[in-house]
Amino acid sequence: MGWIRSQVRRAGQVRLPRSRQGQRRAFQVVVAATVLVLAPATWMNATAGPRVYGVADAPAAPVAIVFGAGLWDGKPSPYLAHRLDAAAALYDRGAVRAVLVTGDNSRQDYDEPDEMRGYLLRHGVPARRIVTDYAGFDTWDSCSRAHRIFGVDRAVLVSQGFHIRRALALCGAAGVDSDGVAVAANRDVTWAYGGVREIFAAGKAAADALLRPDPQFLGPQEKGVTEALAEAP
User: Fold this and answer.
1) Which residues pair with 130 in a beta bridge?
2) Which residues of the chain have pLDDT under 50?
3) Under a CB-based contact definition with an 8 Å cutoff, are residues 110 and 143 in contact?
4) pTM of the shown model
């Protein structure tokens, strides 16, 4: 038994190189791995630059794009509700003339875009100014479809601070010239999870921006945004 315990202890120990050359190589490997992990996040922050604003000072754009953030008991989660509140405020002050809500409607019992639409209607945004994208399954798909399907070239993106820079980087790669509104968020477990998730999501975002794959669902072009912008005030 004593021999078994000693072997288990040895197996759980990390042996460091004893030679200086080995230690130097180990250090170089750690540095290289750290750079590889952090490089996509650094790229996102550099790409987003100073283009993140609050609701009150966001530059004007034809369209606001609101990204889905989940439903709770069939209604917008608090994080999603905050995004929609910001979009309604942008419309109310005349910063945008239409709102594109993009989210998940991959099954019959989960309809994120229509719930987002309903929330905006209850908060004063006219139906003729709201456009729904039912295939915004992730940020890249939402950005790519906004440009390729709905013809959006210029937009204000609405999301929480931990996500907005990734959205800006991906929409820029998809062909949408955009500024971002970073919605305030409670520093709770969801906020902490979102921040950690962004570190890992940055790698996929960099790959999407480089490879520019088709979204999961492409489909024909839609005139919803064009028609919403053409509506009389």
Assistant:
1) 99
2) 1, 3-12, 26-38
3) no
4) 0.79
C-alpha dist (Å) from residue 45 to 143, 167, 177? 17, 11, 16
List Cβ neighbours of 64 (8 Å cut-off, separation of 6 or more): 87, 90, 91, 95, 96, 98, 99, 100, 155, 156, 157, 158, 181
Question: Which residue blocks in the chain are alpha helix, DSSP H?
Answer: 2-12, 20-48, 78-92, 112-122, 139-148, 161-174, 189-211, 224-230
Rounded Cα distance between 91 and 216, Å, is 30
The three-class DSSP label of residue 186 is coil
- 174-232 pLDDT, tens digit each: 999 999 999 987 666 655 555 556 666 677 888 888 899 999 999 999 999 999 999 87
| Angle value at C-alpha 91, between 85 and 92, nearest 5 degrees | 85
In this prediction, residue 210 carries a pLDDT of 86
Q: How many other CB atoms are found less than 10 A from the CB of residue 150? A: 23
3-class DSSP assignment, residue 52? strand
The CB density around residue 175, as the number of other CB atoms within 10 Å, is: 14
